[in-house]
Write a sequence for this structure.
């Protein structure tokens, strides 16, 4: 290989490698720089999901009301119609999760600081109500579904974390090294964008696991344990 070819390869190769590495590295840098806030956001969202589950077990009417809502709005019928086609089911779950994150967390936070955090806090509680193991079958289903909860709620937590950084940067620009509110908003928005990108692999993995576990694991586990 000629010296020119080697030099060209050395110039191109690092840049070619840098893009995917940066996509992975940048969100972790944001988390590391704001680690305390990240932990608090996680404690809030996972805590609210757990609180919703406990509340539904202590007060069965709460869980029954939430399940009735899922029946009335067509969610339950949609799940039953798609469960035998796990790939289509995965795609549907992915779409619902992405839209939920966008409509409940990201878009409100773009308009009013921290609004998405408050809105999804309520949503997390209702998710807990719907997933409460109030029957033996639901309790068995929760065994594989607990991994789904761990993955997908982490994606929502990252979006809430991004909404927090955006709101903080907007209200207090100095925290992100900005000189005014407009500059703080733009810099906070960039960090929210990086964190939003990091949620896509989690949403994809969570959707695939949820669809295939409901299709292929819940029934055998039910037969074995009940």
């Amino acid at each position: 290989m000629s010296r020119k070819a080697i030099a060209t390869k050395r110039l191109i190769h690092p840049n070619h490698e840098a893009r995917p590495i940066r996509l992975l590295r940048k969100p972790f840098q944001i988390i590391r720089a704001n680690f305390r806030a990240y932990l608090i956001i996680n404690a809030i969202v996972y805590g609210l999901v757990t609180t919703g589950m406990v509340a539904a077990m202590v007060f069965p009417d709460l869980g029954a009301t939430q399940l009735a809502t899922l029946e009335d709005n067509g969610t339950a019928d949609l799940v039953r119609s798609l469960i035998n086609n796990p790939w289509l089911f995965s795609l549907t779950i992915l779409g619902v999760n992405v839209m939920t994150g966008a409509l409940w967390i990201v878009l409100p936070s773009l308009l009013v600081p921290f609004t998405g955090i408050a809105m999804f806090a309520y949503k997390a509680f209702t998710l807990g109500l719907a997933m409460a193991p109030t029957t033996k079958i639901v309790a068995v289903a929760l065994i594989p579904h607990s991994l789904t909860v761990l993955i997908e709620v982490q994606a929502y937590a990252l979006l809430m974390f991004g909404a927090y950084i955006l709101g903080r940067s907007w209200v207090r620009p100095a925290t992100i090294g900005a000189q005014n509110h407009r500059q703080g908003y733009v810099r906070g928005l960039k960090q929210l964008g990086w964190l939003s990108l990091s949620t896509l692999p989690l949403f994809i993995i969570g959707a695939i696991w949820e669809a295939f576990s409901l299709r292929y694991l819940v029934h055998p586990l039910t037969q074995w344990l009940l």
